[in-house]
Amino acid sequence: MNISKREQRVLHALAQGGAIHFERTPNGKIRAVQCFTREGYVLLDCTLDVFTRLKKRRFIHSKNGRPYRATRLGVTCVRAQLDNR
To answer: How far apart are CA 74 and CA 22, in angstroms?
Structure first.
């Protein structure tokens, strides 16, 4: 599957235990997202465009209004990185 570098970075952070926190508008649409790594740092590569592309491909999901996490499909699609081996 073709995944851009930014999508790859975000999926890698999520596969290691990170989460995407979001803000909604009063009508329920997501207006802002922030990706946090498991150490608590903010990943700047996670924009609203990257978020919608990952969500559309079903690489991330949210349960009961909680932050978005990587799905099993998202974890299998992420390429191996040096700190994952």
So the answer is: 19
The answer, as to whether pTM is greater than 0.70, is yes
Q: Please give the backbone phi and psi of residue 33, each rounded to the nearest 5 degrees, phi first.
A: -135, 150
**Residue entry with tokens 């990952």:** 54
Residue 67 lies in a domain: yes
The total of structural domains in the chain comes to 1
Domain presence at residue 83: no
H or E element at residue 33: strand 30-36
17 vs 23: CA distance, rounded Å: 20
85/13: higher pLDDT: 13
Contact 68, 20 (CB under 8 A): yes
The boundaries of the domain holding residue 13 are 5-77
